[in-house]
Amino acid sequence: MHSQAINRGDTVKERLSFLVQYLRNPKEVGALLPSGSAISSLMTREINPSHGPVLELGPGTGSFTRAILARGIRADDLTLVETNTEFCSLLQRDFPGVHVHCMNAADIATSDMFGGRQVGAVVCGVPFLLLKPGEATAILKSVFEVMRPDAALYQVTYGFTHPFPRDVLRELDLVATHRGRTLLNAPPASVYRLMRRSASGLCH
Ligand SMILES: C[S@@+](CC[C@H](N)C(=O)[O-])C[C@H]1O[C@@H](n2cnc3c(N)ncnc32)[C@H](O)[C@@H]1O
To answer: CA quadruple 37, 108, 74, 152: dihedral positive or negative?
Structure first.
């Protein structure tokens, strides 16, 4: 496989900074290196400017952020929520005009970051499989509170099924569908789309 094909992160500096943060806090960061361009395209290909405001959770060094902006989303219509303070500083520097909030995704619903507007799409890099019990539930509840009824959350995962707790999906009546997988990532990665059942086109 050509090394460009797995193209993880934009620069060597970005990859190094990601690796350092992973070594400091492996459970928070959840991957050794940033996502590459193939999975970034898969994560964002269903998003267009009509979905603004768009929310990204766990942007890290901004692989998906770049892909979202390349889909035509205005910087002012994009909000990033990231717990890692080093990544927050990098994101503020590298993505002028984009709203960066250094906080836990579980607290989104309690902060009025969208000025009353509802979010049209969510791109999520948070490592759900590594979260503490209850944290995944708190994040999903909080995020679906700020989303439009027909909005979708796009989740990256390295597993062979979606990483969401099934009891929460039942409780919130959410449906996860596989949207694609790429081998051009190390490790290979999949995208799942999470929506309210009422908007997913699937019957009960
Ligand atoms: C696997 S990395 C993905 C980074 C980037 N999206 C990519 O694909 O290259 C996970 C990111 O989620 C962030 N994160 C973990 N838990 C979080 C939480 N509860 N709220 C917001 N960000 C979180 C980590 O700090 C890290 O930047």
So the answer is: positive
Mean pLDDT over 165-188 rounds to: 95
**Inter-residue contact 53 to 119 (CB < 8 Å):** yes
Within 6 Å (CB) of ligand 1, which residues are found? 28-31, 34-35, 57-60, 63-64, 81-84, 87, 104-106, 125-127, 156
* CATH code of 119's domain: 3.40.50.150
Ligand 1 center from residue 29 Cα (angstroms)? 5
What total of structural domains would you count in the chain? 1
CA nearest neighbour of 85 among 16, 15, 21, 8: 21
For 21, the domain range is: 3-200
198: left (phi over 0), alpha (psi -120 to 50) or beta: alpha
pTM for the predicted model, two decimal places: 0.94
Looking at ligand 1, which residue's alpha carbon is closest to its atom 23? 58
Which tens digits make up the pLDDT trace of 81-139? 999 999 999 999 999 999 999 999 999 999 889 989 999 999 999 999 999 889 999 99
